[in-house]
Amino acid sequence: xxxxxxxxxxxxxxxxxxxxxxxxxxxxxxxxxxxxxxxxxxxxxxxxxxxxxxxxxxxxxxxxxxxxxxxxxxxxxxxxxxxxxxxxxxxxxxxxxxxxxxxxxxxxxxxxxxxxxxxxxxxxxxxxxxxxxxxxxxxxxxxxxxxxxxxxxxxxxxxxxxxxxxxxxxxxxxxxxxxxxxxxxxxxxxxxxxxxxxxxxxxxxxxxxxxxxxxxxxxxxxxxxxxxxxxxxxxxxxxxxxxxxxxxxxxxxxxxxxxxxxxxxxxxxxxxxxxxxxxxxxxxxxxxxxxxxxxxxxxxxxxxxxxxxxxxxxxxxxxxxxxxxxxxxxxxxxxxxxxxxxxxxxx
Amino acid sequence: xxxxxxxxxxxxxxxxxxxxxxxxxxxxxxxxxxxxxxxxxxxxxxxxxxxxxxxxxxxxxxxxxxxxxxxxxxxxxxxxxxxxxxxxxxxxxxxxxxxxxxxxxxxxxxxxxxxxxxxxxxxxxxxxxxxxxxxxxxxxxxxxxxxxxxxxxxxxxxxxxxxxxxxxxxxxxxxxxxxxxxxxxxxxxxxxxxxxxxxxxxxxxxxxxxxxxxxxxxxxxxxxxxxxxxxxxxxxxxxxxxxxxxxxxxxxxxxxxxxxxxxxxxxxxxxxxxxxxxxxxxxxxxxxxxxxxxxxxxxxxxxxxxx
Lengths: 347, 307
Description:
The complex is a heterodimer. Chain A is of the alpha/beta class.
């Protein structure tokens, strides 16, 4: 595979996807320090939002330590070269949030839908396009749709005005062959000037390999997080990906050592738990379950006594998708009740 | 028995499901269905069921509304066109039941506030959204026990039951639902989240209600209030069920619901259609009874945006 000379843009997730393992409790100081470090390391684009996007503040997903406005207002003025992006999930956030983000200086808006529901993004993508923002469509849980299906969903987003469409492996389920077929189908379907991106999770340790596979098939934007801080077993670790790109001659513009220092000196010390592939996050990748479910399942295990792994497998069987965090407690209660009834019968 | 004659605007999922319900009503008689696509399946079905139809939008109905004595119209189109439809029909003295999230009239959630609207002489009432109809009775069931400072609802519907109107209008759905969760549900602040799940076979509609109370939750009273309200809703949506809860943790009260439909148009998983159309039909029936008894007379509204 010769990718020498390919130019790609890495997009940092530490301060958005990384909000999940931080239970959305990052301080403004942590945000500012990490964002400044990323900026100095040459990361061109940094996402800053509640883990579930603009307007994600809720009982269902968790109330953050600060509002989206506070985080964005703290970070954006400090950026010397990096641009800031915000995530928006239609059904959670609205175009009002999008306009607020633009006013605060957000450069890129990423409108995320489940991989079969692109048509709910029309209002938001059109609005962002009209406001001349860098407008990205983000097809989540992409393992749940075929390459052809994703291509037609991507075309919808492009038709609304997206200048880039992502294949998003929210469950960290995909293997390189899945990434190749999906990125290739989407790349072939879209206009040459529309970019294609890939967002990986590291639940099967495929983050870097999958991202390289995506680049080989024409993706030019790759999401990653310093020290992998992200939902589940984390995102593609930025410092590793940048080092691999450097070895392969893929140009990211990011300094290999500076990004290592951000990961090691700033991000690892702020972790509430070590981001690693434990049996529960491995189960996410193995069974194709939304990575943000991880901590909710662990909490439900503590409260209701149903092992998180069992709960995640059941959520997968029930075909729960991103955003259905409410069903984790519900399923735990139902399973606990069934278990009690079973025990009573046996006794 | 004499019936009040009705028109259905919109020939999609909601309009068609509503048609089945109106056909069974003892006091309502659907006579017109309005669409915008001559090839629409919904219009063909309505014709088969003996209704007059037009594919020219609400303007195709206006010349006939008086001579066919249409007194109540249901708008199941989209928030974008509702204001126009309402203004034109109100001008002819036709009362409007709004099933879009436009919400230019007051919100109506039957077990909570229908009685207040009957007798108010409103010419436009709004049915909020399917998520609102499914969850606001539960928010109210908590807020009638003790003050709720924040209420949040999560509605998950099967992708196949969400038509193009809902999809293009998703922000209106979240805004209107959040507004009504606060205003009708009785919470100081409201938030709404909607998820479309494409699973096949389709999943039955699920709704979760989270309330944060101002003082520690009174568990026994909330439990009794919730169960009583479930029974009220079941009177018109038999598939409305409590799956889990109320779960009480700190100041949080969480209620996990499932809404199965009657399977009139879409199969039973699409409880989101039923909860909306059944609420609209129940609302119209209450007004129709007032009209038939002479207690309420509909007057044309001078041509301006109805409030």
